[in-house]
Amino acid sequence: VLERTASAGETTVTESITPREAALWNAFSQQETRTLEASEHAAADEALVLVPLDDFGLLVVAADSGDVDLTFVETAARILTAALQRTVHVTQVSELNQNLARTRAELRERDQLATAFRTAQRRIRQATTGSGVHEALVAFATTIWDDAWVGKWRARDDHITPVCEATAGGPATAHGDTDAASAVTSPPLTAATTNEAVSVANTLTDDRYDHWSGRLLNFGYQSSIAVPISHNGLVRGALEVLSLSPDAFDEEAVASLTELCHRAGTTLARLATPSGGGDRVELDVEWSTDPPFFSDVPDSVRLTVSETASISENRFRIEGQAHAPSRDDVERYFDAQ
Questions:
Q1: Which of 199, 278, 301, 314 could cross-link 324 (Cys pair, CB 3.0–4.6 Å)?
Q2: Cβ within 8 Å of residue 204, ≥6 positions away
């Protein structure tokens, strides 16, 4: 359909031209100038001169057939076509410039993220205190996004307490199951409990954490991500990163934050382990009853625990070795538990 986009003077020419008006439509489809007397069409009360404007449309002049200077009309059509082509070219150049600017901005952001990530890695690796680790995480997050804080998790009552904040007086606050009547569910608590990252792409529309999202919105934050700080299943806290924009955390951002929090958990575990000098000491301990964690172990099976981690109040992660005549003996024992 060709629709009228502009007109000059009073005219009775139709508002649109479709293939059903073959006499008029063919001037456009066949790209040739046509002059039609009033009796040859029903689009107007006057004779029409139709000049194609390439793929842009038609220039339609309505007048008495003897009053039209065809050369003048065709010249005007060429000028109009050239102007339309320039407009399209300018629009295309503008769109290309905008796309180029977006690409450059994305490259700068990625370069900024990579540089900040390397700096944070080094700071975490060289940290000598827990606060140094927490500060490195917050510094990395606020290099890219708008706010961040680290909370220390207490597994026995599912409670989290801020230990490092980028913005004093911000949304970070102690919360959890200290009082069942006023318990608050939040992404940092969920991340600490499940040992998995939790993201909220839009605090306005995500209804999983109404109370917490409302708190973030009071400070203007429209998206967030909470990442657990853990090592070998032992969660020590969570990092929450906040943004004033929705959908601020893509896959690359999530991967970077997760990797740094894992490294932070490893460093915190190292710092929490006494590192006195001297030789390593190994002790053989005999239990008067069944050893911890395992009961009724058959005489043919010996279980050696090398590492344990408290995941929550009633959950533990245990690593070690099983010594038995066959794999079936071990599997039968655990199947029976």
A1: 301
A2: 213, 217, 222, 246
* Number of residues that make up the chain: 337
The percentage of the chain sitting over the pLDDT mark of 70, rounded to a whole number, equals 83
d(CA 273, CA 126): 16
Strand partners, 227: 239
Query: Considering Cα of 314, then 317, then 323, then 328, what sign does the dihedral take?
Result: positive
Question: What's the token pair of residue 171?
Answer: 């949304």
Angle between helices 70-126 and 251-272 (to 10 degrees): 10
Handedness of CA 122, 128, 132, 137 (dihedral sign): positive
- The DSSP string of 259-283 is HHHHHHHHHHHHHHS---SS-----
Query: pLDDT per residue over 34-43, tens digit each?
Result: 888 877 776 6
SS (H, E, C) 109-174: HHHHHHHHHHHHHHHHHHCCCHHHHHHHHHHHHHHHCCEEEEEEEEHHHCEEEEEEECCCCCCCCC
Mean pLDDT split into 10-residue runs, the chain, 337 residues: 75 76 84 82 76 88 74 89 90 86 79 88 94 96 95 89 94 76 75 94 92 94 96 92 95 93 94 58 44 70 68 63 78 74
The residue whose two tokens read 């079936």 is: 328
List, in sequence order, every residue forming a beta bridge with 3; answer none if it has no partner.
16
- Judge contact between 220 and 244, C-beta under 8 A: yes
Cβ-Cβ contacts under 8 Å for 100 (sequence gap 6 or more): none
158: left (phi over 0), alpha (psi -120 to 50) or beta: left
Nearest by Cα to 215 from 181, 248, 173, 180: 173
